[in-house]
Structures are given as C-alpha cells and as structure tokens.
Design a protein that fits this description.
Blueprint lengths: L6 H6 L27 E3 L17 E3 L1 E4 L8 E6 L1 H10 L3 E4 L3 E5 L6 E2 L5 E3 L6 E5 L10 E3 L12 E3 L2 E3 L12 E3 L4 E2 L2 E3 L2 E3 L6 E3 L6 E7 L2 E3 L15 E3 L2 E7 L2 E3 L5 E3 L6 E6 L2 E3 L6 E3 L9 E4 L2 E3 L8 E2 L6 E4 L2 E4 L7 E2 L8 E3 L2 E4 L8 E2 L5 E4 L2 E3 L6 E4 L5 E7 L2 E3 L10 E4 L5 E7 L2 E3 L9 E6 L5 E7 L9 E4 L9 E3 L47
Parallel strand pairs: 3-5, 4-6, 5-8, 6-9, 7-10, 8-11, 9-12, 10-13, 11-15, 12-16, 13-17, 14-18, 15-18, 16-19, 17-20, 18-21, 19-22, 20-23, 21-24, 22-25, 23-26, 24-27, 25-28, 26-29, 27-30, 28-31, 29-32, 30-33, 31-34, 32-35, 33-36, 34-37, 36-39, 37-40, 38-41, 39-42, 40-43, 41-44, 42-45, 44-46, ...
Antiparallel strand pairs: 1-2
Length: 542
C-alpha cells in the first residue's frame, strides 16, 4: 500500500528539491511544472481566485530549460557578464525557460542589447535574490533587454519575465535606453510578474512604437523604483511603464517608489481597453497615469482602487487627455505642490465617470482636485480638500461643453493659493449647456477660510444655458454660498440650496429662475423675514 505524504508536510519541503522553479499559487500565479523538461506546460495567468485580471490567452510550452550559470553567467557582484548572457539566451532560443542564478549579475550592453526570443520565459530566484545590474561606465544607448526583435528572435513579443531585479544603474552611465524595450510593432502577449525594475535610464518597460497596436499586456505584482530621474527625463517625460497604441493592457497590484511617472499610454491605432488598478504609487514627480494623444477617439479605460501619493508632482496625477469612456473610481490621490491637478485632462476628454475618489491637495499646489473639460461626464461621490484653485472646476476649453452632472460630492477648503470656489464653471468663451449640480456639500472649516463661494461661475459671463443648481449645501464659505454672474441665463434654475439663496448675484436684465419652495406650515419668527427661528410658546402643564 502506497503511503501519501500529508499536504502540510509537502509544503515544508525546501523548494530547492524541485530545482529552480519559481512562483506559487499563494503569490497569485499558478505554475505547473513537469520536471521542466521538453514540452513542460506553464500557466502564467493570474489565479481567478486571487484576481479578476484577464489571464493570458494561451499557456506556454517550453522546449528547453536553460540554467544561465552553466553558460558562464557569474553573479558575484564583480564579474561583468555580456557574451555569457547572450550565449545563455541563444542556447534557449524560441520557447525556452532561461533561469538566472541568485546574486548580483553585473551586465554590459556596450556591445548591444540582449535580444530575447518569442514564447520564452526569463526568471530569477526572486525579485530580491537575483539582481541583473548594468555595470558602471556604460555609454551605449541600448536597452538592456529587447523583445520582438524580428528574424530568428520572433516579432510577436510573447515573452514572460518573472522573479528578478533589473537595475539600470542610470547614475553611473553616460548613455542608455529602456530596461525592457521593443524594436518592432505590433507586439502582444508580454507579461512581467513579480519583477523589480529600478534606476532605468528612460523607461522601465518601454514599448514606444505607434505604428501598430501593442496588445494583451499584463504587468502585475512588481516593484518600480527611481526610474526616469536622470537629467532630461522630466521633459520627455519618463515613466516606469509606457505602452503606445495600447490595447487590452492590464497594470495591477504594482508598487512605484520615487519615479518620474508611473504609467503612460498613447491613443494611436484604436487604443483602448486599458486597466490600471490596485497600484500604489509614492513620490512620483510627474504623471501617475497619463492617457496620451494620437489616433481618433481612443478608449475606454478603467483607473480604479489605486493610491497615488505625489505631493511633489508638477503634472496632473491622472490625466485623461483626448480619451473617451474613462472610469476613474475609488482612488486616493495627493496631488502636486507645484502645478497640475488631481484628475484632469488637457486637451479635453469625453464621457468620463469620476466616482468615489478621495483627493487631497498638497501645500502650495496650484490646481483643482478634479478639472475636466469635454462633455457628457459624471462627477459623483468624490471627496476633495485643499485644492490650490477650485475644488471641482469644469472648463469648456473655449469650444463648448455639454451634458455634465456633478452630484453628491464633498468639497472643502479650496482656494489655498488663489481665490477660488468649491465648484466652478469656467466657460472660457465657448458654450456650456446641460449642467446639473445637485446634492453637493461645499464648505470651509479652516480658522482662516480660503474657499470663496460654494458654487461659482468664473471666466466668461455668457454662453450658459439649461443649468440646474439645486439641493446643494453651500453654507460656511468665505464670501457666500453661490456666485452666479452669467448672462443671459436661458433655462437656469437655482433653487433649494441651503446657504445659497441669498447670495447669488445675476445680471438684472435676466436673472435665473428661482423655483418656489415646497409648501410648508407658516411659522412665526422672532424677527421679520427670518423663517429659521419659530417662536416657542410656553404651554402650561397640567
């Protein structure tokens, strides 16, 4: 009769007994090894039990397993590896698993980048155990690794990187490029899981071509640190991750620390279906997420459940420029001490849903918590405090905006740098129509208030129509509740706003309609005209 080892005992067996296989179910990655021999199947998808991220479309089969140390790769922190790395990769070829040993493996790309092969998996002993670091003194403008190189390497880019650190060591170079880059487009099925990518010369992962789509990309459970900080990177700007012409891209559960920016996407060639979720970004100096231009009407995107803490940023933390159908939801954002806003666009985006975010302005910031242009958007259930300008500021951009709903937000203590209100409409010389501002609470609870009005118009005073401002609590602002200065005011209704009815100002030739209050019991008061303090009568007892 066969004896079966208890499961708990199997879990205690050192992983070394199973070779150098990496990963486990408990890390969110299911990897099935059959001795890592020819045809070994590996499922690199994220477990459905751990994540809702779309898994890779196919499992990979590896024809060879290559241990880089057997091809002369030395990871002692002293030996500089170049041709030995190339030889190990070449020995694997297509559909291979190349495993780098523990330790610090100094590498040089002065003679050229390390081209990797389609269908292959490149792994280490863990993201803090295997460190591939560019040796000091490099001047060549080469990527460290390059995928989809064409020819015998393949041009698809279906490559998997896991369980290692790649250190670009930018401070000790005079030239460089991306840590993992690509030379051709389109590319697809790239995966980076449990990686640590640091000190990149430009981009940590940079897929720059806009010639065709770059699709089916998953970057998860990885760490990015101090990428894109060299002189000149701010002007590009540089990021941890860049995918141009992005389609079906998922970036989730990563951590970024002190980089220039986190993730950027362009709108070329039908870009869309981009998901950025559950990431933690600390100390970015520019954008955390930037949806870029190019193409026609790119989108949709989903940016949710992230924490972006970037008080030193000089850009919008989340920039939605030119994309449509964006959902920005349940993020916690601290935005810049220099410039930019929490969530904004420029040029305008359309059909945005900005819902349930908590946004904090750092001391000295000059922007809005939320500052979109465009049309057909919903801003709801957000919390905003400490904006240097207005809390929520809608700007028509001079070309016109329509179909905007701003409801159930809490906005306080705006106008920290210049005089602004809690919610502002800025027509900028265009037209603004179909606006609903309803159920918001705007106030200032500072010892020295800075938020001028709860709701206000700024900029041009013409071009507004079909605006409803109703049921907002605008008590407790510096100068008043509502400051409406626009004319003409076709179809404008301002009604039932506690703290606001007595404060709005209009051009006397055409004032907004004031909806009559709901019927109520007539109350006597202590003062004439005061309906808030009914007389109390002393009623005898007994």
């Amino acid at each position: 009769m066969k004896r079966v080892l208890p499961i708990i005992y199997l879990l205690l067996i050192p992983s070394a007994l199973f070779g150098e296989a990496q990963g486990s179910f408990f890390s969110g990655v299911v990897e099935t090894h059959t001795g890592l021999g020819a045809g070994a199947a590996v499922d690199t998808g994220l477990s459905a039990a751990k994540s809702n991220v779309i898994p890779p479309s196919t499992a990979r089969s590896f024809h060879k397993v290559i241990y880089a140390a057997r091809y002369g790769v030395v990871c002692d922190g002293v030996t500089v590896n170049s041709t030995t790395v190339t030889n190990a990769i070449a020995a694997g070829g297509l559909k291979a698993h190349v495993i780098f040993p523990r330790g610090t493996c100094l590498v040089s790309v002065e003679g050229g980048t390390f081209h990797v092969y389609d269908g292959s998996w490149y792994s280490g002993a863990g993201k803090l155990r295997t460190i591939l670091k560019r040796a000091n003194g490099g001047s060549a403008n080469n990527n460290i690794f390059t995928i989809a190189s064409g020819g015998g390497f393949g041009a698809t880019g279906n490559v998997l990187f896991t369980d290692m650190t790649i250190d670009g060591n930018y401070a000790n170079q005079t030239g460089g490029q991306d840590t993992i880059g690509a030379t051709t487009s389109p590319l697809s099925k790239f995966r980076a899981l449990r990686m640590r990518i640091i000190n990149s010369w430009t981009y940590g992962i940079g897929f720059r071509s806009t010639a065709a789509s770059q699709s089916d990309i998953l970057i998860a459970d990885s760490i990015f640190e101090t990428n894109g900080l060299r002189t000149g990177c701010a002007a590009l700007p540089c990021f941890d991750i860049v995918t141009q012409a992005s389609q079906q891209v998922v970036i989730t559960r990563n951590r970024s620390i002190g980089s220039q920016g986190f993730a950027a996407f362009s709108g070329h060639n039908g870009a869309g279906n981009v998901t950025v979720s559950d990431n933690t970004v600390t100390g970015c100096l520019g954008f955390a997420v930037a949806l870029g231009g190019g193409g026609t009407n790119p989108g949709p995107s989903s940016i949710s459940n992230n924490t972006f803490t970037c008080p030193g940023s000089n850009q919008n933390i989340v920039d939605l420029a030119l994309w449509s159908d964006n959902r920005v939801e349940n993020n916690t954002i601290t935005f810049g001490s220099v410039n930019g806003s929490g969530i904004a666009d420029g040029p305008p985006s359309n059909k945005d849903q900005i819902i349930g975010n908590h946004i904090f302005g750092a001391v000295g910031n000059q922007g809005y918590c939320i500052g979109p242009g465009g049309s057909d958007f919903l801003i709801a259930d957000n919390f905003c405090t400490g904006a240097g300008a207005g809390g929520i500021g809608v700007n028509s951009g001079g070309s016109g905006s329509k179909g905007m709903v701003i409801e159930n937000n809490v906005v306080k203590n705006s106008g920290q740098l210049t005089a602004h209100g809690g919610i502002e409409l800025n027509n900028s010389g265009g037209t603004m129509t179909g606006v609903i501002i309803k159920g918001n609470k705007t106030y200032d609870d500072q010892g020295t208030p800075t938020q001028t009005y709860g709701i206000a118009t700024v900029g041009a005073v013409t071009g507004y129509s079909n605006v409803t401002i109703e049921g907002n609590d605008v008590r407790g602002n510096k100068l008043g509740g509502i400051n409406w200065t626009a004319t003409p005011t076709t179809g404008v209704v301002i009604a039932n706003n506690p703290g606001g009815e007595a404060f709005y100002v209009c051009q006397r030739t055409s004032c907004p309609q004031r909806r009559p209050p709901a019927p109520q019991r007539k109350r006597r008061s202590h003062r004439c005209g005061d309906l808030t303090s009914p007389i109390r009568r002393n009623t005898p007892h007994g």
